[in-house]
Write a structure and sequence with these properties.
The protein is mostly helical and 232 residues long. The chain has 11 helices and 3 strands, in the order ααβαααααββαααα. A hairpin with a 2-residue loop joins strand 2 and strand 3.
């Protein structure tokens, strides 16, 4: 009886690892496809649309893909300055930033800062659900490594610029530029770009509170840092 039980246990474990490997292969295939093709959606976009349609069945996302050279360099510099100053140099993870975030959170006794890079944020947005599970962070690390290995820094940044959330149902630089300023992503000024970058950590809140003091203060900080930001 015990021998039979162990047999079933090992078969279950083996099946789990086979399914896990197949899932990783599925992710890798998508990333390989995105070397030359643009993703039309992301796991996070689909999740937000589902939430919106629960309230309004006719709800739609605002999203329009634009190529890298059609997005203002001001916005690129603003996002690098705000979200990941070492983006062009690291290999997916900013260990110094993670350590600083950990120390800050430990001091405050709660999570007030994150150390996620642009590559990590993209990994979460493209593939992972919003549910916090024990294996979610591990999966994020694996996907980040795949992105950094298979895609160029410019391609990672291009996809990031086109899929991140910028308001309630607003995704990507082009939709954000038109939603807030009625211009294309290519026409964004330095101040407009800095404001959009400042919104990224809490876009739905700032969509409703566009004159919030915290947003204005962070915009000023980003504006000062933008000239030092290196973009791919």
């Amino acid at each position: 009886m015990l021998k039979k039980l162990w047999g079933w246990t090992w078969r279950t474990v083996a099946l789990f690892f086979v399914l896990l490997l197949l899932y990783q292969a599925w992710i890798a295939a998508h990333i390989a496809w995105w070397i030359n093709h643009n993703p039309s959606t992301s796991a996070f976009m689909e999740s937000r649309l589902e939430v919106m349609q629960d309230k309004n069945p006719d709800a739609e996302l605002k999203h329009r893909w634009v190529p890298y050279n059609k997005i203002s360099n001001h916005l690129k510099r603003a996002l690098i300055a705000s979200e990941d100053a070492k983006f062009v140099d690291h290999e997916g993870f900013d260990w110094e930033g993670i350590q600083k975030a950990y120390e800050k959170n430990l001091k405050k006794g709660r999570i007030v800062a994150g150390g996620s890079t642009i590559s990590q944020q993209l990994a979460k947005n493209l593939f992972l659900s919003t549910r916090r599970t024990p294996w979610r962070k591990g999966e994020e690390i694996i996907i980040t490594l795949m992105l950094e290995t298979m895609l160029s820094k410019q391609r990672i940044f291009e996809i990031y610029l086109n899929v991140i959330e910028w308001g309630n149902g607003v995704f990507g630089a082009e939709a954000a530029a038109r939603h807030y300023y009625q211009v294309s992503a290519a026409q964004l000024s330095a101040e407009q770009a800095a404001t959009l970058a400042a919104m990224v950590p809490n876009p739905r809140y700032y969509d409703r509170h566009r004159e919030a003091r915290g947003l204005l203060r962070k915009t000023e900080i980003i504006l000062r840092r933008m000239s030092y930001a290196d973009i791919p």
